[in-house]
Each structure stands twice: as structure tokens, then as C-alpha cells.
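From the shared-data thread, chain only:
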Amino acid sequence: MNLGLLKNKRKQYGFKRFLNSFKYAFNGFKYAYQNEQNLVIHICVTIVTVITGLIFKLNNIEWLFILIMIGLVFCAELINTSIEAVVDLVSPEKHPLAKIAKDTASAAVLSLCVVAFIGGLCIFIPKIWGLFF
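Structure, as C-alpha cells:
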């Protein structure tokens, strides 16, 4: 790696750079939304979860858990998308290590989704049960 290039690259500071960082982040959201079907599914599940939470009048602790899990799932999905893009960049041909990187990143998202789902069940099942008994 040529460290001389890194030393010559000056960091820009200021309000314009700050605003640009938001633009780049929104570009990332836009890319993921347009190219990752699972992100659209996460958005739909989030909408249903929030509406259900409003209907059942979740308390602050329940909302905190729900919001943390939603945030973690979105972050994991965006990181997974980033990993897939980098792997495709450095290894455009099929390679066993590229497959491992992509599969384990996807497994991380799935693991988090399962935990979020179980946590959601722990919050919502007693409330649904209370409607009938």
C-alpha cells in the first residue's frame, strides 16, 4: 500500500463537509433501498411493528427495545450490503472465500432478525393474549 498517497491527502473540515456526509449517507440508503429486497422487507416489518406498538400503547421500555432492534437490523443490513459490494469489487469472479464473506454477513443479519423477532414476540404476545383472556 502506498502510504505516501495517504499522507498527501488532506482532510477537509467544515460545514460543507458535514453536509456532504449526510448526502453520502442518504445515497447509501437510496442504493440499499433500490437494490436490496431485504431492506424493503425490513421497512415493511418496521411499519407494521410501529403501528402495532401504537395500537397496544407500548411503554417506554418496550419502545426502547423495539427501536434498538429496528436500528440494529437496519445497520446490519446496510453493513451486509457494504460487505457484498466490497467483495464484488475485489473478487468479481466466484471464489470460495468471497462466498464465505457474503454468506456470513447474511447470517449475521438473519441472526439479528431472529433475535428481534423473538423479542417482539415477548412484547406483543402477552398484549394479544390479553385481548382474549
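The mean pLDDT is 93.
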